[in-house]
Amino acid sequence: MTSVKEFRVERAATADELGRGAFAFTDDYSVFDWGKMPDEIPDKGASLCTMGAFNFELLEREGVPTHYEGVSTPDSDGAAVSLDDALDSGAAPREMTIELTQVPDLPFAGDDAGDPSGYDYAAYHEEADENYLVPLEIVFRNRVGVGSSLRSRTDPADHGLDFAEWPDEVVELDDPIVEFSTKYEEQDRYLDRDEADRIAGVASVDDLAAVATAVNRLVTERADEAGLTHQDGKIECLYYEGEIRVADVVGTFDENRFAYDGQQVSKEVIRQYHKRTQPEWVEAVSAAKREADERGVADWKALCDREPEPLDDRVIAAARDLYCAGTNAYVGRDAFDAPSLDAAVDAVRDL
Question: Which alpha helices (H) appear in the chain, and where do they start and end?
C-alpha cells in the first residue's frame, strides 16, 4: 500500500509475464514524505482515479504504452471499463485495473551495499531480471519557480539557459527540463544522468526521458484546453520485453502541479498551508531528514519529534472542492458535484 492508494494483486508478475491487479484510491493525503496524514479529503481518491484514467486513455490513444487496463465501478462487477462508461453509470470510479510488474525489495545495507547511496541496487536488479518497475521518478518542469530546489542544485547554464544566475522571478521554459530522482529510498534525492542510468538497470535513461517528454506534452496540451497551466510533474515506468511503459498514476493533482489564474490547483495548496500554519512540524521533518543523512540511516521519521496536527474543517472542504472542480475542468465532464473552478480557486486563496 502507498500512502494514498491501496494495491491489490490478482495475478502476480513473474520474470517472463506481467501480472494483473488494481489500485484502490483512498481519500488520504501525504505531504513532505510523511505518509498518511491525520485527515481525509472527501472524494480525493475518486478525483485522482478519474484524472489518472483520463490521462492514461489519452496516452494510449497517442501511442504511449502504459500499464492501464481500465477502471471498475460497482455496476461493472469488477470488470475493467473505460472512464466514459464508468462516468455514464453515474459515479466517479475509485478503482483502476492495471498490469503488474515485479518490484523487488531494495535493501539498505549502508557501507556494505557497494553503492554510495547505501542501497543495494545490484540486488534489486538481480532479482528483477528484465520485467520490473524502474526504481526512479522521472521529473519534468515547464517552469522554474522561485522556491524550486533546482535553483540550489544547478546553475541556469546546466540547462542551456542564458542567465549568469537564477533570476528572482519565475522562469518559464521553452523546453522542459527532465530530471531523475530516486523512488524507493527513504528520502528522495536527485541524480545525475550517469547515476540514474546505473540505477535504471537495462532501461535506458534516454528512453525514459523521451517518454516523460511525451507525457508532459500531452498533459500540458490538455491542461491548456481546460484553462489550466501545467507547471511540472513526474512519472514512473516499468520495463518489460525491451519496452518502457508508463506506470503508477499520471497527471493528477498529486503527481503534478497545475495552476488556474495564478493559483495552485494541486496538493501544493495543502503543502503550503502546512508551511504557514504548522512551521514547527515542517522544520522538525527537515531536521529529522538531515539527521538521518548525517547518521547514515534510512528511517528519518523515527528521528522526528513532532506529529502533524489535523486540518480545520473549512480547509478540508476547500481542498475537496478544489480537487473535484479541477478534475471536472480537466476531463471536461461533471464527474463530481462541485462548485465552478473559479469559485473553488477563490476559496483556497483565502486559506
Answer: 44-61, 83-88, 121-128, 150-153, 193-200, 205-225, 268-277, 279-295, 313-331, 341-349
Query: In this structure, what DSSP letter does residue 58 have?
Result: H
Residues of the chain with pLDDT under 50: 1
Whether residue 121 is contained in a domain is answered as: yes
The CATH number for 151's domain is 3.30.470.20
Alpha carbon distance 67, 86 (integer Å): 19
Amino acid at 29: Y
Q: How many domains does the chain have?
A: 1
Distance CA 37, CA 308 (A): 7
Q: Is residue 282 part of a domain?
A: no
Would you say residue 86 lies in a domain?
Answer: yes
- Beta-carbon count within 10 A of 235 CB: 28
Burial 24-33 (b: 16+ CB within 10 A, else e): ebbbbbbbee
pLDDT tens string 65-79: 999 999 998 777 778
| pTM to 2 decimal places | 0.92
